[in-house]
C-alpha cells in the first residue's frame, strides 16, 4: 500500500522552496526521525508543523522536540537550500511530484533526496544489485555482465557505489546505457570510498548520485543501513550477487521483501563463503537467478523474436490500455499513473514492456509514443 501524505503540490517556486526548507529543518531536530515525520504528516500539514508546533502535543510529541521546532529559524534553512542549488545539487522533497513513487511508500521515506546528475532516472524502473565488497573475481564478472545486459533492456541499475559487487554493477550499466543510480551513505558531494573516484565521476556524467544526507556529511557506519533501505525502496526488485550470511546485502534483501518487492539471488559454490548468503535467501524463497533473462522473466518478461516482452501481451489500443495514456509529446510517469489509475509498481514494469516492444520511447521529460504505437 502506498504511503500517502496530505501534502499539497507546490503552486509556486516560493512554495516549493519553503517546502524543501521545512523538511530540511526537521532533519536537524534531534529526536525526530524520518519515520516520526512521515507518521505526523498523515495528520498535520508540513507548514503547520514548523509554524505551529504546539499542535503536535496531542500526537504525543515530547515537549523538548516541540521546543526545538518553535526555535527554528526558517530563513536559515531557506538559505541552505539556495546554497545547495548554487552548488549544482538538486533537492527533491517528499510530497512533491519529483519524488519517486516507490520510495514514498516506505514508512520511513527520506524527507529529502540530494541529487547530482540525471534526476529523471528516479522515475524509471530500477533494479537494485548488491553484494559483497570482497566478492570473488567470478562474482564481480557476473555482476558486471548481468548489469550490462539488464541496462541494455532499459532498466536502471541501482546500487551503493561500494567496492566489489556494487562497483561492478554500476560499471556494467555504464558499459551499456550509462544509466545507473548510486545511493550514497555520505553527502552527495563526498566521494566514498576514495578509490571509486573515477567510477563516481563516470556516474555523475551519465547517471545519478543520490543521498538523504545533507552535503558535506562524512561516511559513518550507521549511515549505510539507512542507505540500504533507499536502494531497496527505489527498486522493483533486489538482486544479490554474492554475500555472506550476515551482511548489509542481506539486510537490503530483507528490506526489499518487507516492502513487497521481488528478491532474487545468484547461487554459487558451496565452498564459497560469499555464496552462503545467497543460498540462505534462495532457501527462504528468493528467486534463483543464473542470467539477466531470469531476472526479466521473474519480472514478467519472456524472450520473443530477440526482445523481452510480456508472455501474454495485453497492450492494444483500447480504453484499458496504458498506451492510450501516452501521447506523442513527453508524458511523465506520475501523469500516466494518475490517468491510467494503475499502481506505480505495475506501471513501471508495463512501461519497460512497451519500450521493449518499440511502442514507446523514454526521454528526459517522460515517455512518448512512437510511430509503431
What does this structure look like?
With 373 residues, the chain is of the alpha/beta class. The protein folds into three domains: 83 residues, no CATH class; 180 residues, Rossmann fold (3-Layer(aba) Sandwich); 69 residues, Arc Repressor Mutant, subunit A, CATH 1.10.10.10. 40% of the residues lie in helices and 14% in strands. A nine-stranded mixed sheet has the order 1-2-6-5-4-3-7-8-9, with helices on both faces. It has a two-stranded antiparallel ribbon with strand order 10-11. Strands 12-13 form a two-stranded antiparallel ribbon. Helix 9 links the parallel strand 5 and strand 6.
* DSSP E strands, number: 13
As for the number of domains, it is 3
Strand order of the largest sheet: 1-2-6-5-4-3-7-8-9
CATH architecture of the largest domain: 3-Layer(aba) Sandwich
Terminus-to-terminus distance: 31 Å
> How does the major sheet shape up?
9 strands, mixed
Unreliable spans: 1-10, 312-320
SSE order in H/E notation? HHHHHEHEEHEHEHEHEHEHEHEEHHEE
Oligomer: single chain
Number of helices: 15
Shape: globular
| Gyration radius, in Å | 21 Å
- CATH level-1 class of the largest domain: Alpha Beta
Beta-strand percentage range: 5-15%
User: Could you estimate the helical fraction of the residues in percent?
Assistant: 40-55%
Mean pLDDT: 90
CATH topology of the largest domain: Rossmann fold
Structural class: alpha/beta
Keywords:
Rossmann fold, nine-stranded mixed beta sheet, two-stranded antiparallel ribbon, single chain, disordered N terminus, Arc Repressor Mutant, subunit A
